[in-house]
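Consider the tokenized backbone below.
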């Protein structure tokens, strides 16, 4: 008599395991650690398993484990300290090629003075489209700030930001003339993922007024959405006068 067929759900459960087994040894170690990081098993700064522990767990060479850890470090997911160990990275570093920087730090690095004018800081009801992007229901509470950042007294960024109260319940109690929303949110809700859109566009009438520019002046507009594991954190529209900003990069074939 032929053996009974395995139930469909058993086959589905075995599929991810089979896929992992097909990976190269270093990739299996790397994926295991990435999965653990994504589940929050190692919070930022936490000590992760040693090379010796991983060698014993996976039955692979130290060279294999070292490659897995090197690649995780390159992706900005772990920090390695010689003679000490491997630590879960501060997760605002989204990858080795994308870093969310605090505007205050950028200005200070140029030797200039940063200050901010807060125009809006309040709780609002989220309309359907905004609620969906923040993982909320239509009409749920959302925190809203509108801030103009200045460098040596010159407006350089209009920051229109909405924040999910679930990840930063004390957001509206922060004095954003003394610290930036970016700095505060990176402290209380480290970022796991971020999505950007960047375009050249005209400012709205209100943005032009706040930045002290003509309504027809071109601007660099960045819309950024971040999340922590599966929970959206914030959506921000960042408008910069085009005459003060440029995008630079490099490419090697």
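A designed sequence for it:
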């Amino acid at each position: 008599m032929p053996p009974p067929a395995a139930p469909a759900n058993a086959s589905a459960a075995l599929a991810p395991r089979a896929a992992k087994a097909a990976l190269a040894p270093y990739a299996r170690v790397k994926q295991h650690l990435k999965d653990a990081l994504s589940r929050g098993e190692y919070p930022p700064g936490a000590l992760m398993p040693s090379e010796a522990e991983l060698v014993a767990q996976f039955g692979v060479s130290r060279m294999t484990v070292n490659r897995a850890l090197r690649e995780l470090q390159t992706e900005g997911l772990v920090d390695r300290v010689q003679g000490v160990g491997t630590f879960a990275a501060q997760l605002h570093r989204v990858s080795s090629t994308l870093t969310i920087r605090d505007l205050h730090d950028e200005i200070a690095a140029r030797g200039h003075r940063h200050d901010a004018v807060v125009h809006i800081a309040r709780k609002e009801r989220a309309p359907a489209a905004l609620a969906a992007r923040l993982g909320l229901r239509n009409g749920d509470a959302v925190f809203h700030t509108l801030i103009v950042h200045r460098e040596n007294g010159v407006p350089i960024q209009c920051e229109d930001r909405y924040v999910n109260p679930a990840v930063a319940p004390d957001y509206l109690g922060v004095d954003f003339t003394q610290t930036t929303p970016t700095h505060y949110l990176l402290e209380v809700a480290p970022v796991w993922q971020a999505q950007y859109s960047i375009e050249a566009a005209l400012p709205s009438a209100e943005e032009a007024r706040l930045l002290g520019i003509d309504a027809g002046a071109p601007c660099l507009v960045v819309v950024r959405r971040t999340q922590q594991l599966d929970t959206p954190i914030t959506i921000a529209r960042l408008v910069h006068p085009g005459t003060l900003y440029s995008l630079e990069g490099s490419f090697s074939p």
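The domain at 103-244 is CATH 3.40.1410.10 (Chorismate lyase).
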